[in-house]
Amino acid sequence: MKTIIDLWSRWSLSARILIGLGAGILAGIFFGEPAAVLQPVADIYIRLMQMTVLPYLITSLVIAFGQLSISEAKRLALRGGALLLIVWLLTSLVIFAFPLAFPEYVSASFFSQALVEPRQPFSFTDIYFTSNPFDSLSRNVVPAVVLFSSMMGIALIGLKDKELLLAPMRTWNAAIVRITHFVISLTPLGVFAIGAVTAGTISLDTLNRLEVYFMVFAAASLLLAFLILPLLVTAVTPFRYSEVSGIARDALLTAFVANSAFIVLPILIDRCKTLLERHGLLDDNAESATEVMIPIMFNFPNAGKLLTLLFIPFAAWLSGAPLPGGDYFQLFAAGIPSYFAKAQVALPFLIDLFGLPQDLFQLYIPTTIITGKFDSLVTAMNLIVFALLGAAAMGGFLVLQRRRLLRALLGIGGGLVVSVVAVRLLLGAMVDTSYHLDQTVHEMQNPGRLATTIVHRELPPTTAGITGGAARLERIRSRGSLRIGYDPRNLPMSFFNNRDELVGFDVALGEKLAAALGLRAEFVPISWPDLPQLLETGAIDVMPGVWYRPYWFTSLQLSEPYLIGTIGLAVRDNRRHEFADLEKVRQISGLKIGVPLDSTQIQTSMERYFGGTDAEFVVVEFWEPFFEGRHPDVDAFLMPAENAAGWTLLYPQYTVVVPQPDPVRVPSAFGVARDAEPLRSLVSEWVVFADNAGVIQEAYDYWVLGRGAENTEPRWSVIRNVLGWVD
Fold it and tell me: Mind giving me the DSSP string for 111-129?
């Protein structure tokens, strides 16, 4: 054991991290889904990484600005600020362009509660300016924290007694660094847990999609490091491209292999001085600029750090909702200042800002083992650019020549286009982007289905003349079954799967309700206009999915609600953003909105939804013809968001939109006959019980949110599929 510990301690941290990640991946493959038991360990490690970042950021910025003299601050602001803006602009251009390399990906996703929650509107005021910096700190609003800290540091410039504050801050920073080093020492354990959980639970399709991020990130990094950044230098200095790339070669290789740009800072400074001396340009000003520019600029967001912003458009693409072009301005405006902190803090903030699933961040952590090397590569070249351009500015040999500038711009533009096209073609050939969720839906089964369940395809014979609630209950008991109405086209509430089994959310609840009453479930098809009569005659006893609307109150009774539904719109993917805001929807000229035949429940919500609009409402026989494209003149289809999401799984070229900021929510309940008060009371009691016991939530998670639906069988693992240790 001692020998193993000694051997482990001799290895570099990078080697230990790689071993930890590899062991975690192997553990995930071996154990499969049981590896999820390590999720708390992964969560703790991620939070420990995030814990010290913002406190360190605050003190670092205050110290960095506060220790400057007035002359140094002016020089840094004028020259360093201009350089930063240029590099940020070029990097932003790359980040904007490379998502075009993502392959065509026909996607859809199970309904998410995030669809009905208003996405927080982007606000410069909220993101950058805060009345309470501690509130911004607690909510992880990094841009506001950066601005406040920078203002604090700038305010210290020129103050005589500033060391009274700066000295304890340096001590504070040193303490945080010690904590950070401790957390870093835990990285092998942390990446082991993350690797095990990811490899054990992530779908193979998602792993396949990660190839897209790796290749796009690598291509963008190489383009920046070996073309765009060197050409930037050649455009405004006497240095040739071969000279700039030549002095950087060994430093870039070292940074790539060691996964750290920090360790090559002395090499970078030396190589820049060598190039300046070769051209006879190494005077005191140029030398000072070289020695100062690299260490200072290392602490600012550079091209290497910012390139990880590519994960946000990738995450959006992976989620089936690619970022529209207009959102990239928000990405850069919020993302660049966020990268004064580490990606571990910046990315969760941005993921939340753009309404993406938070669990995607856990996908990011293992990718850094590979992308971190390219990040270091770009960072090293970025620092060389800062040093050479800073020296040129201070030494007076910064020259803007039209020919050189034009050549650089053509090289940057041409290289960007060629790279994006090449990566797009390569990814299209390598990555499987076939769509399969429609098959998943058709394969869904009702977990725990009872063998006694009866499903009728036509109305069974009934005996007329039932009167009184007691008589109805007695008839149900003597029959031994509870007749439950269903609409076979009501995906995902009730539909037939590829085994010709009636399944769905309402079906699952109906079976559980019948079982709780000591009865077998007997499902009967219904027509919504005939619902009151079917309940009255006893053709059915209860009908799930009836909305709390005035139309029904006069013809039947409703139980306690078991679901709060949301009214939404089914629209073409490419038009989703047109319908995201209700006020904008009302302004669409010539708008045609489809409504299903016999959909009194939905039609009564039209004025609430579209008050003041001149939209034309077009009656369509049902939802399916709209999705099949048989009504091309209809712009959107009004329907429950949960149902719309179900249908978009079958027709992924459509998506569900809930116009904001005021979603319309309508309770759903079990309907019974007007004189069936005893039955209504029993059903209501069961709804309350099932809600408290988590029965309804469990069914909702499976049928509406799709949790567990995509993988009807446990993930492949060695212990299950090879050794047969578990079923």
Answer: --GGGGSPPPPP-HHHHH-
